[in-house]
C-alpha cells in the first residue's frame, strides 16, 4: 500500500476540488439581489472574462513560441525529453484554469455578498469567504493534482529501472519542471498585466471621478467605475491566484528535485531502499502539500462570526482562527509524515563539508522554521502596514507638513521594513540549511506553502468584499449595506498586506531551493563570486528587479493617462452623465485597461524570461565555456533574488503603509493637537490631501511592481533550472568528447621545493585538433590543487586525465 | 635613480600642494567686497568652522575607541604591527585637514566671487574655480603625500629582506591600510553629518521662509539662511572632499596590495626582479596618482572664459576642456609609465584558471577602460539628470497631473538609470579582469581616480558659486551680480550630478579591488554563495544600504522638523524680522543643524563599521570556524556592494532629475500646449508646486543618503580588509597548531569502484585534545576532491596532511 502513496496527494487534491465544487454551487445558490445588482455584477464579470480571454489569446502566442524554444532544448540535450513541452502547456493551462475558476466565483460572489449584507453581516462573511475558499481550493487542488498526475506519468515513462535511479528520476523531474515553468510564465503575465490593469483603472477613476468631478468612489456616473471593479478581480484575484499557483508548484518541485539528491547521496555506497518505492524523500513534499489541502478545508469551517454588529477585530479573529488551525494541523501532520516517510537518519552531502548524518527530525525542525518564518514575516508586514501602529502613525504625522514629508516618511517605512524581514529570512536559510541542507530549506518552503488554499481564501475574500461594496454603491442600496461590506473590505486590506508578506517569504525560499537545485544540477563547484564574470553577473542580476519595477510603474502611469483622457472625453461628450440621465460607455474604459495591460506586460515579461537565457547560454557560447556560463547564470540568479527580495519588501510595505495612512483620516487623526478628517470642499484637510498623494504613489508600488518581484525571482530561477542541462550536468558527456588522447603532465620540483607542472592536451575545436599547454607553478600543494581545478574545468569523469594526475611524475631538478 | 622612484609621487604631491598655496593666496588677495558682504561671508565661515570643530571633537572620541580596537587587533594578530594605530590616526587627521582646507577656501571665495561678479563673469569664474582648485589639490596632494610618506616609512620598518619579500610587504601594506581606514572613517561621518546638516537647513529654510512667509531664497530675514549657506559648504565641500580623499587613498592602496600579489605570483619559481627595488607593480598606482596631480594642475589652466556675456554652455565647455585635457594627459602618461615600470609580460594567477601570461599593455588597456567608464558613467548621469533631456522632461510633463505622478515618474527615472550604469560597470569589471585580473580592475580604478584633483575642483566650484549668489542676495547687491552667479551655480548643479556619477563609479571599482584584496588576503577559496551561510550574509549585506538610506532620510526629516519649529519661533517672537528692523538669531539655527547632524550621524556610522566585524568575527567565533567567518564576511561585502551601487545610482539620479525638473519651471515649460512658470500668489502654477514636492523628496536622496552609499561600500570592504588577518591569512599558522599528530586516511574501493575514505585526525580545542572522524563517499574522483577540500579547510601547509593524502592506501574490497 505504501508504495502507492503517490495516490494519496492525488486523492487529497480531488477531495479539495470536490469540496470546491460543493462550495461553488452553494455560493451560486445564494440570492444575487435585484436586477440592477445583477446587471452590475454581470458587467464586472463580462469585463473580467473579456480581459482573461484577450490575455489568453496573447499568451497563446507566447506559449507556442516558448514551446518551440523548449523543443530546441529537448533537441540539443539528449536527456531532455520532448514531453517537457506537453508538461509546459499543461502547466500554463492549469494556471489559466485556476485563475478562471477564481475569477468566475469572485464575480459571482460580489452581488451575493452585497445581497447577504442587507440582512446579516455573518452571512455576508460566509458568502464572501465562501468565494475565497473556492478560489483557494481551486488553486491548491489543481496544483497538487497536476503535479501528482504528471509525476506519475513521468515515473512510468522514465523510471524504468534500466538505468541508474538517480539519472532516470532526474529526467522525470526535469520534465516536471516544464509544468512548473508553464504555470510560472502565466503567473508572470497575469500578475503584471493584472497589476497594470487594476491600477490604471483605479488611478483613472479616482483622478477624474473623485478629484475633478467630485463624485464618490464607485459612483455609477463614473465611466471608469466598472473597469475599476473589474481591475480588483483581474489584479487581486486572478493575479494573486496565478502567483500562488506558480509558487506552490515550484516549491514542491524544488523540494522533489532536492529529495532526489538526498537519495543520490545516500545511494553512494549502498542502494537506497524504503517502503515508498525507494523515493520517500521525493514524495514527502507532495504528500505534505496534499495534507495541507485537507488542513485548509478543516480550517475554513472555523471562519465564522455570529454577531451581526461585529467589528473588524471580530472578523479578523475569525480569519486568524481558521488560518492558525490549518497551520497547526499541517505542522502536526508533517511531524508524523516526516517520521513515517523518511529514514531515521539520512546522509546528506554538504558543499565543502563532506557527508553528514542527518536525523529525520531535523527535517521536521526545518519545516517548523518554515511555518514560523511565514507567520513571523506576516506579523512584521502587519506591523509596518497596519492602522494605528507606529510606522503608519509616523506617516500620518508627517502628512501635516505636506506631500513631500509624507512621501519621504513612507519611503523610509518601506525601506526600514526590510530589516526584520531580511534578518528573519537569513536566519531561516541559515538554520534550515544547518539542520538539513538545501533539502531542509526546500522543506521549510513546502511547509510554509502547504496551507496555500487557506491563505488564498483569506486573500481572495478581500476583493470580493470590496466589489460587493462597489455593487452596493452603484445599485444605490441602503447605507448599512455599504457599512457592512466596508467592515469586510477593511479586514481584507490587512489580509492583503499580510498575504503579500507571506507571498514574498515563500517566493524567496522557493527561489533559493530552485537555486540549490540548479547548482547541483549543472554539476558546477558552487557559485564563486570571486570570479569577476560571476561578480559582474551578480550586479546585472541586482539591476533587473529595479528596471522591472520602473517599467511596471511607468506602464501604470501611461495606462492611467489614457484612462483619464477617456473619462474626461465621456464627461464632455455624453450628455446627461452627471445628472444620471445619460449612461457612460463603461466598455470603452474596460477596453483601454485591457489593451494597455496586455501591451505593457510584454516587455517586463520578456526581460524576465530572456535575460537568464542570454546570461547563461550567451556567456557559454562567447567564452566557449559552458561551466562558466552556468556559474555566471548562478551569479545572475543570486543577484535577482537578493535585489528582488529587497525591492519587493520595500515596495509592498511602503505602499501598504501609505494606503492605511490615508485610511486613518476616515476616522479622523490628531496631529499636534488638531484633528483632521477626509478632505471636503467645505472642510479642507491639507494633511489628508498629502496622504492621498502618498497613497497614489503607493498604488503601483503595492499592486503592480511590488508583487511582481515574487514571480520575477521564481521565474528567473526556474528558467535557469530548465536550461541547466544545456550548461552542465548531462551535457558534460559531450564536453568529454572534446578531449583527445591522454593528457600528459610533467611536474618538476626545484631546489626550494617549488613545483612546476606542464600540462599538454589536445581538444577538437570546430573539427580541428588543437594542442594546448598550461603551466602551473607554486608549492607542490598549490600546483596539485590547480591540477585538480584544471581537471574539474575540463569536465570529464573518464580516466584519461584522472590517471595521469594521480600518476604525475615528479622530477627533482 | 629608478629605485628612488618612491620620491616621484612625493615630489609631485608637494608640487600640487605648493600650487595650492599659490592659488590660495591669490584667491585671498581678491577684494572681498563691502562690509556687509564680508560680515555675511564671515558668518558662513564661522558657522562652517564651528560645525567642523564640533564634528572633530566628537570624532576624537571615535578615533580613540577605534584605536583601542585596532590595538586589540594588533595584539591578537602577530603580523599586524601596532603602528597601524598611528597610520589610522594620521589618515583621520589628513582627511580632516583636507576638509578643513577646502572649507576655509570655499568660505573665503564666496564673497570674493560675488565681488568679482559685479564687474566680470570671467573673473567670477576664475575666483570660484580657483577656490575649487585649492580644494582639489589639497585633497589629492595630501592623499598622495600621506600615502608616499607612510609607505616609505613602512618599507624601512618592515621590508628588511630578512624574511620573504611578499610576507614583509604584506605587513607594510596592512599598516598602510590603517591610513586608508582612518581617512574613510572620517569621510563617512563627514558625508553623513554634512548631508544631514545641509538638508535640514535647506528644507527648514525653504518650508518656513519660502512657503509660509513667502520671502525669496537667501533672504536675510530668514533666520535659517546662514545655516543653509553653511550647509552647502559642510555637505558639498567638506563632505565631498572627505569622500574623494577616502576613495583616492583606498583605490591606490587596493592597487598596491594587488600589485604585491602579482609579484608573489611571479616569484613562485624565480625571484621577481625589476629596476624599482623589485616592486614596480606596487609603486605604479602611486606614481600614476602623482602624475594625475600634475595633469590636473595643467588642466586647470584651461578653465577660463573671456566673454562677459557668456551663457552656461560656454562655462560648461571651459570646465569640460580642462577636465578632458587632464584625463588625456593622464592617459598618455599611464601608457609610458606602465611600459616603463611593469615587466613586458607578467604571470598572474587567475582563480580556477591557473597562471596566465599577461603582457603589460593589457594593464594599460585596463586603465583605459577605467578612464572610459568614468567618463561614460558621467555622461549617463548627465543624461538622466540634465535640463532639457527626455527623463527630466517626462517628470516635468507628469507634474501637470499632480505631485503623485511627479513622484512616480521621478522614482522611475532613478530606477531606470541603473540600467546603463550597471551594464557599463559590469562590462568594466569583466573586461578589466579578463585583461589583467583584479590588478587590472584596481588599475582601472586608479586611472579613473588619478584626476581627482580636477574632478574635485569642478565639483567644489559649484557650491562656491551657489554661496556667492547667497552673499549677493543677502547683501542686496544689484540683480546682474546674482544673474552671473546663477549662471555659475547652474553649471555647478550639472557638475555636481556628474561628480556623483563619477564618485559612485570610482567607489564601486575601489570596493571591488578591496574585495579582491580581502579574498586573497584571507586565503579562502573564493566566496561561494552556494553555501547557505554565505548566501544569508549576501542578503543581510543587501539590506544594509536600504536601512542606511532609511535612517539618513529620517534623520533629515527629524532635523528639518526642529529647524522649522525654530524658524517659526523666531518669526513669532522676534519683533520686526519681516520688516527688516529686527535681526534674526542666525546662530540658533546653525546650532540646531550642527547638533542634529552630529547626533544623527552616529547610528548609521556605527552600523557601517560594526556590522562587518560582527558578521565576520561573530560567525567565526560561533562556529569556531575562522575560514567560514571569512567567507561569510565576503558574502556580506558583496551584498553591500551590489545593493549599495543600485541604491546610490537610484537615489542620486532620481534626486538630480527632480531638482532639474523643478528648475525647468524658471524658464517656463510647455505642457499640453500651456506654458507654466514658477508658482506665485498672483500667478498660480500647480505643476510647479508638484515639482517642488518632488524636489523636496529628492533632496535627502541626492545629498544625504545617495552619496553616503559610496562610503558605505568602500568602508565595509576596508573594515573587512583590516580584520582579514584575524580571519585568515597569517593566522593560519595558529590554526595549524591545532592539528595534532599525523592525519590518517583510509580509503576503500568497493566492487562498483565506489570509494569511501575515513579520515582520522585530532585537534586541540580549549586545551584538550579531541579526536575527530570524517567520512567521504562517492566515486574515487569525488572522494579525492573532497579530501582536497578537507585539506584546504583545515588550513595547513605542513606536510602532515599533505603526505598522507598523497599516499592514501586504496584497499579493494
UniProtKB/TrEMBL annotation, chains A, B:
Keywords annotated in UniProt: Cell membrane, Hydrolase, Ion transport, Magnesium, Membrane, Potassium, Sodium, Sodium transport, Translocase, Transmembrane, Transmembrane helix, Transport
Domain of life per record: Bacteria
InterPro entries, A to Z: PPase-energised_H-pump (IPR004131)
EC number(s) given by UniProt: 7.2.3.1
Site (Determinant of potassium dependence): 496
Gene name for this UniProt entry: hppA
Residues covered by region (Disordered): 679-699
Assembly behavior: Homodimer.
UniProt catalytic activity: Na(+)(in) + diphosphate + H2O = Na(+)(out) + 2 phosphate + H(+)
Protein name from the UniProt record: Putative K(+)-stimulated pyrophosphate-energized sodium pump
Cofactor dependency: Mg(2+)
Family: Belongs to the H(+)-translocating pyrophosphatase (TC 3.A.10) family. K(+)-stimulated subfamily.
Membrane topology: Multi-pass membrane protein
Organism, as annotated: Winogradskyella aquimaris
Pfam family membership, one: H_PPase
Activity control mechanisms: Requires K(+) for maximal activity.
Main location: membrane
Transmembrane annotation, as ranges: 6-27, 48-76, 82-106, 127-155, 245-263, 283-303, 323-342, 363-384, 419-445, 502-521, 533-553, 601-621, 633-650
Annotated localization: Cell membrane; Endomembrane system
Function: Sodium pump that utilizes the energy of pyrophosphate hydrolysis as the driving force for Na(+) movement across the membrane.
Enzyme class: translocase
GO molecular function: inorganic diphosphate phosphatase activity
Lineage: Bacteria, Pseudomonadati, Bacteroidota, Flavobacteriia, Flavobacteriales
Amino acid at each position: 500500500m505504501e508504495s502507492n502513496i503517490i495516490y494519496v496527494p492525488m486523492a487529497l487534491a480531488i477531495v479539495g476540488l470536490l469540496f470546491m465544487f460543493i462550495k461553488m454551487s452553494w455560493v451560486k445558490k445564494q440570492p444575487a439581489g435585484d436586477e440592477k445588482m445583477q446587471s452590475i455584477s454581470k458587467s464586472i464579470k463580462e469585463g473580467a472574462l473579456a480581459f482573461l480571454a484577450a490575455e489568453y489569446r496573447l499568451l497563446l502566442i507566447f506559449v507556442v513560441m516558448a514551446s518551440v524554444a523548449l523543443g530546441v532544448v529537448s533537441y540539443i540535450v539528449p536527456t531532455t525529453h520532448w514531453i517537457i513541452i506537453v508538461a509546459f502547456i499543461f502547466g500554463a493551462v492549469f494556471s489559466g484554469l485556476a485563475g478562471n475558476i477564481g475569477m468566475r466565483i469572485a464575480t459571482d460572489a460580489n452581488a451575493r455578498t452585497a445581497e447577504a449584507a442587507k440582512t446579516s453581516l455573518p452571512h455576508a462573511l460566509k458568502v464572501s469567504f465562501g468565494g475565497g475558499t473556492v478560489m483557494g481550493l481551486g488553486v491548491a487542488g489543481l496544483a497538487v493534482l497536476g503535479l501528482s498526475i504528471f509525476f506519475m506519468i513521468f515515473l512510468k515513462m522514465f523510471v524504468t529501472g534500466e538505468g541508474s535511479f538517480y539519472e532516470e528520476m532526474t529526467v522525470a523531474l526535469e520534465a516536471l519542471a516544464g509544468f512548473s515553468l508553464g504555470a510560472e510564465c502565466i503567473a508572470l503575465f497575469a500578475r503584471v498585466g493584472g497589476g497594470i490593469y487594476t491600477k490604471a483603472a483605479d488611478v483613472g477613476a479616482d483622478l477624474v471621478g473623485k478629484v475633478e468631478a467630485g463624485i464618490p468612489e464607485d459612483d455609477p456616473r463614473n465611466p471608469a467605475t466598472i473597469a475599476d471593479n473589474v481591475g480588483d478581480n483581474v489584479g487581486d484575484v486572478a493575479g494573486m491566484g496565478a502567483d500562488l499557483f506558480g509558487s506552490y508548484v515550484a516549491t514542491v518541485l524544488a523540494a522533489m528535485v532536492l529529495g532526489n539528491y538526498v537519495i543520490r547521496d545516500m545511494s553512494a555506497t549502498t542502494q537506497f531502499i524504503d517502503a515508498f518505492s525507494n523515493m520517500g524523500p521525493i514524495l514527502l513534499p507532495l504528500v505534505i502539500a496534499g495534507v495541507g489541502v485537507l488542513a485548509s478545508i478543516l480550517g475554513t469551517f472555523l471562519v465564522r462570526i455570529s454577531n451581526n454588529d461585529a467589528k473588524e477585530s471580530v472578523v479578523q479573529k475569525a480569519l486568524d482562527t481558521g488560518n492558525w488551525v490549518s497551520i497547526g494541523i499541517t505542522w502536526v501532520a508533517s511531524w508524523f509524515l516526516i517520521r513515517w516517510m523518511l529514514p531515521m537518519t539520512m546522509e546528506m552531502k554538504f558543499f565543502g563539508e563532506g557527508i553528514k548524518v542527518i536525523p529525520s527530525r531535523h527535517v521536521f525542525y526545518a519545516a517548523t522554521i518554515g511555518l514560523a518564518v511565514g507567520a513571523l514575516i506576516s506579523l512584521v508586514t502587519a506591523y509596518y502596514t497596519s492602522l494605528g501602529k507606529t510606522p503608519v502613525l509616523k506617516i500620518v504625522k508627517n502628512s501635516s507638513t505636506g506631500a513631500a514629508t509624507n512621501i519621504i516618511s513612507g519611503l523610509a517605512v518601506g525601506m526600514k521594513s526590510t530589516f526584520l524581514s531580511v534578518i528573519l529570512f537569513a536566519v531561516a536559510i541559515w538554520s534550515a540549511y544547518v539542520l538539513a541542507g538545501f533539502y531542509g530549506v526546500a522543506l521549510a518552503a513546502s511547509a510554509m506553502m502547504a496551507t496555500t488554499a487557506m491563505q488564498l481564501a483569506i486573500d481572495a475574500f478581500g476583493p470580493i468584499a470590496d466589489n460587493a461594496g462597489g455593487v452596493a454603491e452603484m445599485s444605490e442600496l441602503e447605507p448599512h449595506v455599504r457599512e457592512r461590506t466596508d467592515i469586510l473590505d477593511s479586514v481584507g486590506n490587512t489580509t492583503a498586506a499580510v498575504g503579500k508578506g507571506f507571498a514574498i517569504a515563500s517566493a524567496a525560499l522557493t527561489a533559493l531551493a530552485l537555486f540549490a537545485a540548479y547548482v547541483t544540477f549543472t554539476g558546477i563547484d558552487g557559485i564563486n563570486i570571486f570570479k569577476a564574470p560571476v561578480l559582474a553577473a551578480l550586479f546585472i542580476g541586482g539591476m533587473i528587479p529595479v528596471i522591472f519595477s520602473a517599467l511596471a510603474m511607468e506602464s501604470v502611469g501611461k495606462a492611467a493617462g489614457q484612462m483619464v483622457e477617456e473619462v474626461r472625453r465621456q464627461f464632455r461628450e455624453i450628455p446627461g452623465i452627471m445628472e444620471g440621465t445619460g449612461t457612460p460607455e463603461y466598455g470603452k474604459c474596460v477596453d483601454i485597461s485591457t489593451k494597455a495591460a496586455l501591451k505593457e506586460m510584454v516587455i517586463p515579461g520578456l526581460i524576465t524570461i530572456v535575460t537568464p537565457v542570454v546570461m547563461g547560454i550567451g556567456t557559454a557560447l562567447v567564452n566557449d565555456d559552458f561551466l562558466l556560463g552556468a556559474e555566471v547564470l548562478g551569479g545572475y540568479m543570486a543577484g535577482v533574488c537578493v535585489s528582488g527580495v529587497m525591492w519587493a519588501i520595500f515596495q509592498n510595505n511602503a505602499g501598504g503603509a501609505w494606503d492605511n495612512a490615508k485610511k486613518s483620516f476616515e476616522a479622523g487623526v490628531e496631529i499636534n493637537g488638531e484633528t483632521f478628517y477626509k478632505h471636503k470642499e467645505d472642510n479642507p484637510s491639507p494633511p489628508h490631501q498629502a496622504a492621498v498623494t502618498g497613497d497614489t504613489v503607493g498604488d503601483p508600488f503595492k499592486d503592480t511592481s511590488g508583487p511582481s518581484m515574487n514571480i520575477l525571482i521564481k521565474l528567473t530561477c526556474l528558467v535557469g533550472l530548465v536550461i541547466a542541462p544545456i550548461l552542465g550536468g548531462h551535457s558534460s558527456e559531450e564536453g568529454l568528447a572534446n578531449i583527445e588522447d591522454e593528457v600528459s603532465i610533467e611536474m618538476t620540483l626545484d631546489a626550494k621545493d617549488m613545483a612546476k607542472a606542464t600540462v599538454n592536451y589536445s581538444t577538437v575545436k570546430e573539427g580541428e585538433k588543437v594542442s594546448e599547454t598550461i603551466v602551473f607553478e607554486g608549492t607542490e600543494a598549490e600546483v596539485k590543487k590547480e591540477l585538480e581545478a584544471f581537471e574539474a574545468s575540463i569536465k570529464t569523469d573518464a580516466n584519461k586525465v584522472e590517471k595521469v594526475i594521480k600518476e604525475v611524475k615528479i622530477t627533482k631538478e
